[in-house]
Amino acid sequence: VSDQSRILAYGGADKYIQVSHQADKHLDQVDDGIFDLVQSIEVNGYHFGSVSMGFETQSLENLVHTVTQQILSIAGVEMLLVALFSLLLGHYLTRNLTQLTSASKRILAGELGVRVPVKGKDEIAQMTRAFNNMVDKVDARTKALEAANIRLNTILESAVDGFVIINEFGIITDINPAVSRLFGYAHNELIGQNVSIFMPFDQRPLHDGYIQQYFTTHVAKIIGTSRELTAQRKDGQLFPIALSVSQMSIDNRAMFIGLVKDLSEAKRKEIAAAKTESVLLATLAASQDCLIT
Question: Which of 25, 19, 20 is nearest to 37 (CA)?
Fold first, then answer.
């Protein structure tokens, strides 16, 4: 505190007492390490003196530097934590999606019992549980279908009668062993052949038009019925058969299954019975004895 000519009172470090104090408005104006504040004392226009205060800027600058370093450190730690969290989250999501992708490929390859480990209760875990439930249902249906196919194949393999599956063009796609036994062809000799191969040579051109006529007119002449026909074996031998044809749909394609029954033995028995009946009637007609009943 000073009047116009001398210092009236002071406090602080002695080295700053004789220093000229010029008021600083901003910290960037300080050139002597002291931030000066000067306030005049005036009463009714008379100037009594002034109050001057000075603050070392070094400690303030050190404080600002320290705070700045701390803020930068905190920001760096936050950025590191965010990056680490993003990395962990990305690894978690990628790992689960990779497991789902791998499981899907294994299922497409035909593997059963594929399951993906489930951890947590988030959306990924819920999706994984739904995936596992779907896989369980697919596995159950696949096993049921396989069991049904095994039962069907067992029936077809052991059946005495022949089963022939053909497509809409009359091409053989599958047969059971009975067909090979009846006609004398190996399995691979018939797959891909026209079904008319079982008919006598003179009837084969007529048979090719039956299926196309059915698709054109939708009138079933042989579809859904049973007929007695003459068939031909690989060696050219003709024999009687009963043929029943039914339509089915596989993968939205029209397919036909034919049941072939060999009537050779039945016809032999019919002929033998007719022969026996003829002999009996002839014997009765030629007999001179009287029969009393």
Answer: 25
